[in-house]
From TrEMBL:
Transmembrane segments: 47-68, 80-97, 109-141
Tree of life domain: Bacteria
One Pfam assignment: DUF4233
Stretches for region Disordered: 1-35
Protein name (database record): DUF4233 domain-containing protein
Protein keywords: Membrane, Transmembrane, Transmembrane helix
InterPro entries: DUF4233 (IPR025327)
Biased composition (Low complexity): 12-23
Length: 169
């Protein structure tokens, strides 16, 4: 039996899917807009961002020993110690709040503060630059998934919504 979907007139293809079929039409993918997925494809992104913040908090808090011991404690000023400790603790706290709507701007601010760690010690600034690059990649992936979802390019958008028994066909 032919499993190709057809419309009421028995025609198939781009016109049946509601698309013009022209080469310049990139509104949807080749399978059409698809349906809503059963699970949110961006939900796993919050776990990735939480994990990244936990790792960054660990690195920042371990960098506190660098501030205290390198050059016989020359960088161990009250400002530097407070800056690093507060930054690490806030990153750790924010790792549990990634599902909040306001988490993205706070993440960006934390990355700016991490890169600004050059004023405390170059090692903290370098770690901030490395993690900032990782965050740029995370947000790039998030944007790509949203765009693919909008265009109907995620595989889960084309799975059947209910299970069928194909044995009787």
């Amino acid at each position: 039996m032919n499993r190709r979907s057809t419309d009421d007139n028995g025609t198939a293809g781009a016109a049946a899917a509601g698309r013009s079929g022209s080469a310049g039409d990139d509104r949807y993918g080749p399978l059409g807009p698809g349906h809503e997925t059963a699970t949110d494809p961006l939900a796993s992104g919050t776990w990735v961002m939480s994990g990244a913040l936990v790792m960054e908090a660990i690195v920042v808090l371990l960098a506190l020993t660098v501030v205290l011991r390198v050059d016989e404690g020359a960088y161990a000023t009250p400002f530097n110690i407070t800056y690093v400790a507060v930054l690490g603790v806030v990153m750790l706290l924010m790792s549990g709040l990634q599902k909040r709507r306001w988490a993205t701007p706070v993440n960006v601010i934390l990355q700016v503060l991490a890169v600004a760690g050059f004023i405390v010690h170059p090692a903290i600034g370098i770690a901030g630059v490395i993690f900032a690059a990782a965050w740029v990649y995370v947000y790039y992936l998030r944007h790509t998934i949203r765009e693919r979802q909008r265009r109907g390019l995620l595989p889960a958008q084309h799975w059947p919504t209910e299970r069928r028994d194909d044995a009787g066909e």
